[in-house]
């Protein structure tokens, strides 16, 4: 990356002049980045099995807190490896260090709220603080360095909360870690502002095309975990008609979510990327959406396994939330991204969300196997009838033209 030469924060009174064309350059994901993702594929698997093994509200809250921590590590590291190219030697060494500590952090997930709190927290803090210092030192210009000093301030502020949570008994550690993860999430969503300083990212050089590809690959990891848990459940269940039916509809739902991930939204995002002057903003919003979408896919994976393993169990609110709430989270996050970034406001996601709410109500009163059939059929229908992205673009351009005419 080339230096912008100017700062882009409040208080400086200037906007950087950058060649933002690099935001749409094709920079292939390196083999090391793919290997790096495998460490976090392990994390997604660990989190899915943690929720599946202890299906309760407490376990769900623990899973969310650990998922936020894991995704923060993944996203901040992937961002740094996009800003300071991943094919540079210094970036490769940083990623290898994060992989090493991340492997032990992710291995501690099953016992993080029991006997392995320190095994989870120590690698987490070493990664977050150490990588941020590395980013400050290697940042391509003064604007990025100043921004990462603010990031470091936010991370230092939450460090005591992680430490206190690891020091207390498991019954209270969730509250401390939940607060820390929540503050870290707010920092991520707001781009780590401090009084008098806030990131203004327009015309800042950043390879958004590469970062968006990293996000898509991580969504593939989460979809892969859904397939893996479905296949494992089928292998462990008696091979009868009910197993075949539930397995087919579980896979159909997963394929539908894959189609919704890599169909219309990819086209609309690519079109926006060609004209945007703010590649940082589109990348930030993509990371924020991915966090919610991955949470939804983990819920789907656990629901599929639970239904295939116990197809005739009693209906429950928890299972309904997983079956309908997982896809609901996924589509809400995707719809928000399309509205916030390409500025596409179609009725498709609103109709999909309303439909999934009805699915959730239906699954409260039918056996699990029937609930999975309904959920899989609805998701497949939504994927089949997903609108043509050209219609969204035409509708959006017509709206903008009308608004301009009235002004």
What is this entry, summarized?
The protein is mainly alpha-helical and 407 residues long. It is built from 14 helices and no strands. Helix 9 (264-275) packs across helix 14 (389-406).
Describe the structure.
By secondary structure, the protein is mostly helical. 75% of the residues lie in helices and 0% in strands. Helix 2 (57-83) runs parallel beside helix 4.
Helix fraction bin: over 70%
Largest sheet descriptor = none
* N to C succession of SSEs: HHHHHHHHHHHHHH
Query: In whole angstroms, how far apart are the ends?
Result: 40 Å
β-strand number: 0
The number of distinct structural domains comes to 2
Radius of gyration: 22 Å
| Structural class by SSE content | mainly alpha
CATH topology of the largest domain: I/LWEQ domain
CATH class categorisation of the largest domain: Mainly Alpha
Strand content: under 5%
Low-confidence stretches: 1-24, 397-407
Report the CATH architecture of the largest domain.
Up-down Bundle
Discrete helix count: 14
Overall form:
globular
Mean pLDDT: 88
SSE arrangement:
Blueprint: H1 31-53, H2 57-83, H3 89-107, H4 117-138, H5 142-167, H6 170-190, H7 208-236, H8 241-261, H9 264-275, H10 279-309, H11 317-340, H12 348-363, H13 368-384, H14 389-406
């Amino acid at each position: 990356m080339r230096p912008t030469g100017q700062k882009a924060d409040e208080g400086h009174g200037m906007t950087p002049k950058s060649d933002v064309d690099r935001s749409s350059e094709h920079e292939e994901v390196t083999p090391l980045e793919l290997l790096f993702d495998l460490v976090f594929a392990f994390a997604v698997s660990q989190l899915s099995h943690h929720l599946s093994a202890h299906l309760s509200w407490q376990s769900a809250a623990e899973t969310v807190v650990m998922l936020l921590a894991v995704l923060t590590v993944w996203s901040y590291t992937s961002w740094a490896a996009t800003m300071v190219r991943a094919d540079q030697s210094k970036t490769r060494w940083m990623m290898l260090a994060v992989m090493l500590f991340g492997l032990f952090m992710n291995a501690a997930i099953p016992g993080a709220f029991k006997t392995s709190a320190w095994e989870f927290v120590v690698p987490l803090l070493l990664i977050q603080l150490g990588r941020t210092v590395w980013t400050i030192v290697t940042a391509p210009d003064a604007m990025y360095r100043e921004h990462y000093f603010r990031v470091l301030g936010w991370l230092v502020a939450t460090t005591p909360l992680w430490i206190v949570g690891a020091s207390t008994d498991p019954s209270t550690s969730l509250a401390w870690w939940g607060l820390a993860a929540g503050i870290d999430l707010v920092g991520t969503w707001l781009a780590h502002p401090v009084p008098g300083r806030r990131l203004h990212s327009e015309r800042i050089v950043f390879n958004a095309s590469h970062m968006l590809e990293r996000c898509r690959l991580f969504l593939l990891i989460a979809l892969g975990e859904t397939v893996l848990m479905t296949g494992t459940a089928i292998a462990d269940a008696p091979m009868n008609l009910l197993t075949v039916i539930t397995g087919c509809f579980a896979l159909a739902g997963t394929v539908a979510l894959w189609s919704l991930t890599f169909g219309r939204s990819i086209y609309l995002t690519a079109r926006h990327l060609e004209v945007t002057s703010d590649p940082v903003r589109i990348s930030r919003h993509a990371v924020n959406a991915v966090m919610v979408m991955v949470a939804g896919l983990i819920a789907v994976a656990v629901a599929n396994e639970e239904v295939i393993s116990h197809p005739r169990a009693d209906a429950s609110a928890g299972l309904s939330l997983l079956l309908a709430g997982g896809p609901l989270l996924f589509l809400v996050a995707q719809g928000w991204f399309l509205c916030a970034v390409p500025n596409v406001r179609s009725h498709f996601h609103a109709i999909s969300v309303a439909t999934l709410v009805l699915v959730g109500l239906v699954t409260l009163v039918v056996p699990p196997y029937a609930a999975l059939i309904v959920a899989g059929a609805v998701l497949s229908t939504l994927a089949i009838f997903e609108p043509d992205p050209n219609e969204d673009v035409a509708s959006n351009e017509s709206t903008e033209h009308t608004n301009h005419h009235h002004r």
